[in-house]
Amino acid sequence: MQKTTCILRQIFTVTQTRDGRWLAYWWRTAVTVFCLVGLTADIRASAVGSDVELKVGIVQRFGAKPDDELTLKATAGDRLTLQFLAGNMEPQTVSVDSIKLQIQMQPLPQPEVEERVVLSTHPNFETAEDSALQWRAKGIEVEIAQPRRWQVWAKRDVYKTPLLRRLLVESLQTEGVRTAHLDTQIMKEEPKPSWVMDGLRYNRKKIEITSEKNMIQVFQGKNDKIGRIFVGPLKIQPNAYGTYTLVNQVPLETYLRGVVPNEIGALAPNAALEAQTILARTYALRNLRRFAIDGYELSADIHCQVYYGLSGAFPTTDKAIAATKGLAIVYKNELIDAVYSSTNGGVSASFRDVWNGPDRPYLRPIVDAVSNIWDLGSNSLANEQNLRQFINLQKGFNEEGKSLFRWRKETSLPDLTQQLQKFLKDKKHPQANFQTIQSMEVTQRSASGRILTMVIQTNKGAIELHKEEVRSAFMAPISTLFYLEPVKKDKQTLWGYAFVGGGFGHGVGLSQNGALQLANLGWSSEQILNFYYPGTQIQPLNDSISFWKEQ
What we know:
This protein is of the alpha+beta class. It has helices at 21-26, 28-49, 125-137, 162-174, 252-263, 270-286, 315-323, 351-354, 384-391, 413-426, 469-473, 512-520, 525-532; strands at residues 53-62, 69-74, 80-85, 91-96, 98-122, 142-145, 150-154, 181-197, 200-203, 207-211, 215-220, 228-231, 234-238, 244-251, 298-299, 327-331, 334-335, 340-341, 407-412, 437-445, 451-458, 461-466, 482-487, 496-501, 510-511, 537-540. Helices cover 25% and strands 31% of the residues.
């Protein structure tokens, strides 16, 4: 991959949550009506006038199930315009009130082989990207994919013949690379988006849907009675996995209207809303490369940021977006890695506590409290006993009283075994066929207490899990800030383990629950962001700021 530097030329704004998310959902219907009545003209102007338009995959795997269904509808007094290729491959344009897209499995004239070289599998994009850089350093062209878990593939248009793919895998396996393997499927049929119009059924791989008012209602599945409203054109397009993605092309500031209320809550204090808005804007612009293999830039879920279009848009969040127009967080003239989580358990993590790759100086362990209740310098949480003492503290933190600040979950050995087997099979791990877990132990922690290495002793030998692999392998831990406690139900035999921990998510950067408390204490958005991202600055986007550089 060539080094990439993106420059923002202009920002055009539109005026007009995890703790608060349920309340934001409750207001969805009323708020949507408010937005549609009051802001239609501004929305249309934004879509036309903004230089920064994002491509967001709002339905990523349409066609993964044969009964998948999408219904797109025009808003009141409007019509949808569909553009697709007719049977003679000439462009065709039709106008409809609504369209119901279903999946029709079409037999192929003859079976086709779908094959790719999977070089490695990872729990997150950041670690996959670091692995991709290492593969490129070895002279292997690669691309990052997310069929389910994140993977690094040998670039398909380079290794495009069966011979080249097999030679590559054999060469790597000879070198002792156990993760590289061929993923081969024989396809006898393929899914195609299908709809009925004027008594005729159409099947097309690509469809573009627009409307005069620039708003489209999307209903996902047969039971979705509420739907969501998205601004900007929608496209159905193939992805890299044999299914389809519904992509929303949306101006950045309009995108934020669908993110901020669904991330931190529409009724959060204004300073917290402004901090979240600046973070969300920075995150979006820095992460436009994540889904390049599929022809779009961001997803609408927690793999990026939760985005529900105008559904949930609220005056308070719109005000925060307008007040922070064009502002982002930078470090040495580059957009920061603006990661954040719901709850950090009382201490934020550094970048390398969770992901692989170069550390970010502004992402480092910080005790999430306004008073000095714990000194990380003299009481590092890399020490197991210190970590246990820290987890058992309940008072004095910004997240105090939040439901996920502290937690305990027990899991039996059979369930742990089943979960680990599934995880290892997905990774093509050579010990995936183990039968029993004999013991589990955390062997290395970071200064923020996050697990760096866990060793599981099995009947097939020791298995090491690193960092976020622990959360991917087991269902109980909702963060890597935890310790293990053996559970013996009959006081004799090991029944399983209790995961005793704090926080929800990776814990790097801002804690949304912590930010809410700081805002309630009177902190400004700038103070909140400086607390969680020390050494950074809030600046208007300009030509000298780079979006992202290859590390």
